[in-house]
Amino acid sequence: MKAPIIFAAVAGILVLVFGIYMIDVDQTQETRLPDVDVSVEGGQLPEFNAEVGDIEAGTEEVTVTVPTIDIQSPEEDANNDG
Fold first, then answer.
1. Which of 4, 29, 67, 75 lies deepest, with the highest CB count within 10 Å?
2. Is the four-CA dihedral 13, 16, 19, 24 of positive or negative sign?
3. Distances (CA, A) of 17 to 22, 36, 75
4. Is residue 5, in this structure, part of any structural domain at all?
């Protein structure tokens, strides 16, 4: 019962660490609040440059050998024994 909670917590931590690793945000301009007088000048929002990680995805065709499994129910075992 606790295993799914632990798995979800570990998955959440991994997503958080991956997000922090893949994004680098640098502030390139400071914030300036508007001047408040009788006439109001517009303010200025800060500017940011963000460098994000690059993910390349592709496809590859692979042949996988799947084992065959013979399953017998307890009734079949009893019929084979007697």
1. 29
2. negative
3. 9, 42, 52
4. yes
Number of domains making up the chain: 1
Q: What six digits make up the tokens of 63?
A: 């042949």
- Identity at 74, one-letter amino acid code: P
Q: Is the pTM of this model over 0.70?
A: no
Cβ–Cβ under 8 Å, residues 34 and 40: yes
Closest CA to 44 of 30, 57, 27: 30
Instruction: Write out the residue range of the structural domain in which residue 26 sits.
Output: 1-34+46-52
pLDDT, one tens digit per residue, over 57-78 is 899 999 999 988 888 777 776 7
Judged by DSSP in three states, 7 sits in: helix
64 within domain boundaries: no
In a domain, 70, yes or no: no
